[in-house]
Amino acid sequence: MARSTQQTRFRLANQILDVIRDARMEPGHHLREQPLADLIGVSRTPIRSALDLLAERGIVETRKNQGFFLRQAFDELHRIEIEIPSTVDEELYSRLVRDRLANRVPTLFTQSDIARRYEVDRLAVARTLSRLAEDGLVTRSHGHGWTFAPTLDTLTSLLASYEFRLTLEPAGFLLPTFKPDHAAIERMRLQHLYLASHPNIASVNNMQLFETDAAFHEMCAEASGNAFFSQAVQSQNRLRRLLEFGSYFDSRRVREWCREHLGIIEAVASGNFALASTRMHAHLQQALASAQAAAKHSEAVPTSR
User: What is the CA radius of gyration of the chain?
Assistant: First the structure.
């Protein structure tokens, strides 16, 4: 799905923050547009827009005829993340998934049904359904209808997914090919510190929470050095978009898994891969226990992470 100009601006601002932290830049550093554009892989124009956003937030300053200069040291930015505003498409995606989890949306539906139910235009519906299809959550039916994946919203599938992940993910740390990317680990640590200390976690976009969570598990799988592990975790993340999306409305559980992830990150960073494996197993067991407890109190899909 094409990203809006506004979203691109916010995402690039976060990428520039990553560059600043990775390079350990100090106040007064000249943030030149072209080197940043070359490093991130975009043109200068969106980089300039992202730097303007950072200037609005007081992180950088503009000097007439000179450009942009860093105002804060890299170590003062460790908890700063520019929150990306939701688009109509993302809000519709979130509402559709949440309503499906609560059985408020039927398995079979049409584009017109969704447009009427949520009072959005057909183009937004088409884009959202296309994205859901890319994520493996819906398929096009015969004629003009759509179908949610038939087994994704069952407790049986949720528990089977956890059983698979409990077998796979902790084992990745123990492979002889496991080799962590320390720069990626540090970026992930900073993202989780930001969320764990957020004064109002409920205000953070649910898709941002999901992507942070999913990216953590994919980072660990990629570090295993085994492509099959990485592919399997990516596949599970696609399933989790529907199986567990409700977890991202549970602020308490979000903070818990942030702290659990940070414990795993700490073990990997210190080179204690056996401890990382043990903590990953405990993390997934806790998530499974939360899912089972939630299932007893709701006929909808459990809303636990």
Answer: 21
Residue 296 gets which letter from DSSP?
T
Task: Say what the pTM is.
Answer: 0.60
% of the chain surpassing 70 pLDDT: 85
Cα distances (angstroms) measured from residue 137 to each of 86, 110, 147, 151, 211: 20, 15, 9, 10, 16
Which residue's structure tokens are 């609005």? 56
210 — phi, psi (to 5°)? -60, -45
For residue 235, give every residue at least 6 positions away whose Cβ sits within 8 Å of its Cβ, in sequence order, or none: none
HSE of 119 in the Cβ direction (CA atoms, 13 Å)? 0
Q: How far apart are CA 60 and CA 17, in angstroms?
A: 10
Could you tell me which residue, 156 or 302, shows the higher pLDDT? 156
Please state, for a pLDDT cut of 90, what percent of the chain lies above it.
Answer: 35
- Using an 8 Å Cβ cutoff, are 192 and 258 in contact? yes
Which residue is associated with the tokens 């554009």? 37
